[in-house]
Amino acid sequence: MHEDDETTQDFSVYENSTFGIKINYPKNWTIESQKEEYPLTNVAIFYSPENKDYVQVHIYTYDYTNTEIESLRELLNDAIDSFTLPPNDFPEFKLLRTSITSTDNLAGMPAYVLEGDYKDPEFGKQMILEQGMIKDNINYYIRYFASPSQYQNYLDEVESMIQSFEIQNN
What we know:
Order of helices and strands: HEEEEEHEEEEEEHE
Radius of gyration: 16 Å
CATH architecture: 3-Layer(aba) Sandwich
CATH topology: Protein Transport Mog1p, Chain A
Helix content: 10-25%
Strand order of the largest sheet: 3-4-5-11-10-9-6
Distance between the termini: 35 Å
Largest sheet: 7 strands, antiparallel
Number of domains: 1
Number of strands: 12
Strand content: 35-45%
């Protein structure tokens, strides 16, 4: 058995035909589908098996049809605003890193990456990684939330999920 075969065996596939998306996720994680809300939709949440710690991966779409977004930089600035402007869902948010490089992509499209931390009222200090892009006026982005003690532990699995993300032509 090749090493690659083993990796794919540890993952299951989540597909959502409504949004035309597909992603691999660790087999021992659970999924919660979300209700559709326009223009921002939280499509699905993936939970790690460690319920004692906060580890989640969210897939979102946001319809920018009525808003002009010219560049990934604008999209990234919009993402940063969503963490820093009221209503403050991310108290004490601190931006740790951003990037838009040729190696940053999501579903084969150029993407932005941002990393930060904030203080969750229920779970305390949390770290967040977000990767997003825009295709046909739809912003697709994936957010990874974890407590600082778990962030590195799950980062490889989450990066595999992000790399596996696909948008099917619908």
